[in-house]
Amino acid sequence: MTNEAGIGATAVGGPGARLLRGIGTMLGSALSNQVGAALGAHAFGALGPAGVVATRQVVAAAVLLPLARPPVRRMPRAQWWPVLLLAAVFGGMNLSLYTAIDRIGLGLAVTLEFLGPLAVALAGSRSRRDLSIAATAAIGVYVLVLPGRSSDYLGLGLGLLAAGCWAAYIVLNRVAGARLPGLQAPALATALCALAYLPVLLVLAGSGRLDGVPMAYAVAAGVLSSVVPYAADLTALRFVPQRFFGVFMSVHPVLAALVGMVLLGQLLAGHEWVGIAVVVLANAAAVTTAGGRPHEALAGPSSEGGVHVTVAEALAGAELDVPVGRTSTGR
């Protein structure tokens, strides 16, 4: 039996049991991701966002490289360029997000970042329904931010930069996945990103700051925000349809706001909760209305002759550091 994602479903338990297992796994993955980001924020004072990102990338590379074992010496240029671009996107996406978290808080930063996959999902569409979804998301962002003199525009800009990097990641990962199977592309890109951040770790080590509790927080961020979601999301997609996964992805901004409140003491105003809710609903609507146009090209053509990302793929594949349709599980 296969689900919409093309994953062979296990025969253990009925459909209801598989769905509940998938929901539990997705919820655990989403919560792990946001708790990891919050723990990483606790290390900002000692290591800075760049130090936390560097540690996270090293942890992720240490796990992914032995699993993927990319054929580095045999890779032609056509395989290298999307991997190099992915590495740059990883570095920019994580650094901009973590710096945004440091300036404007976890809930707001993650909500802004989530505009990236939504933009990819809606790009190229001219239907009134999709345009209304985009307009709804824009209204939600305005209500969330309520820009004024006291607004941290740099932090807001960094959150939007993270969104742009996430959108670029979705498209690039699709290209890389067509050229390198399984986890090879993201594993190699993560390793290259970690290598680029090595000077940051050397500076921190030279100043005696790579020890104690802050370092433990940074390592925990790497495990909870990278390693756990890799495994959990791939497992979840064995039990739930891809579109359902995409809808459930919309819970991330809400969980980020709750985790930020509990672990970081970042209380949100009423208008911020309203803005988050509107953005979440816009993302969910983008997925649930995709059923009538499953083959619509939303990411635009690529050098491959047509890399197409549907609404469901964009939102379901956004959180996975593996390309939709080409994972190590055989999707």
Describe this structure in words.
Helix 3 packs antiparallel against helix 4 and helix 3 packs across helix 8. The N terminus and C terminus are likely disordered. It is built from 14 helices and no strands. The protein is mostly helical and about 325 residues long. The relative contact order is 0.21. It is about 70% helix and about 0% strand.
Keywords:
about 325 residues, mainly alpha, disordered N terminus
Please specify the SSE layout and strand pairing.
Elements: H1 15-42, H2 44-68, H3 77-104, H4 106-113, H5 115-122, H6 128-145, H7 153-179, H8 184-196, H9 198-206, H10 212-236, H11 242-248, H12 252-263, H13 270-288, H14 311-317
Helix pairs in contact: 1-10, 1-12, 2-3, 2-8, 2-9, 2-10, 3-4, 3-7, 3-8, 4-7, 4-12, 5-6, 5-7, 5-13, 5-14, 6-13, 11-13, 11-14
